[in-house]
Amino acid sequence: GIPHFVVQIVNTCVSKHCEPSDIHLHCGWFASVRLVNPKAFKRLSFDDCLVNGGLPLKSAHTIRFTYANSFMYPIQFKSAIFC
User: Fold this and answer.
1) Rounded distance between C-alpha atoms, residue 13 and residue 59, angstroms
2) pTM passes above 0.85
3) Helices and strands (DSSP H and E) totals, the chain
4) What pLDDT band is residue 83 in, cutting at 50, 70 and 90?
5) Residue 81 contacts by C-beta under 8 Å, 6 or more apart in sequence?
6) Phi-psi region of 11 (alpha: psi -120 to 50; beta: other; left: phi over 0)
7) pLDDT in tens, 7-62
8) Distance (Å, rounded) from C-alpha 1 to C-alpha 21?
9) Where exactly are the structural domains of the chain?
10) Which of 63, 47, 45, 46 lies closest to 55 in space, CA to CA?
């Protein structure tokens, strides 16, 4: 079968006033055989994926999803707006 990969995006900041928004990740041509909720993670263009629909990621919260593809994408932080 097709391999499945789990992605977790975690806000490790402990302050209540540390909620990054408009979080973008490097993601290449990200695609998945398995549907990924676009509110959680959506490729906007090549190497630009948006997390949480651009909404703030609250302190200690995690966005988690599973995707399926024949290889693992190198997903890395690109940019965000910090308070």
Assistant:
1) 6
2) yes
3) 0, 6
4) confident
5) 20, 21, 22
6) beta
7) 999 999 877 788 999 999 999 999 999 999 999 999 999 999 999 999 999 988 99
8) 36
9) 4-81
10) 63
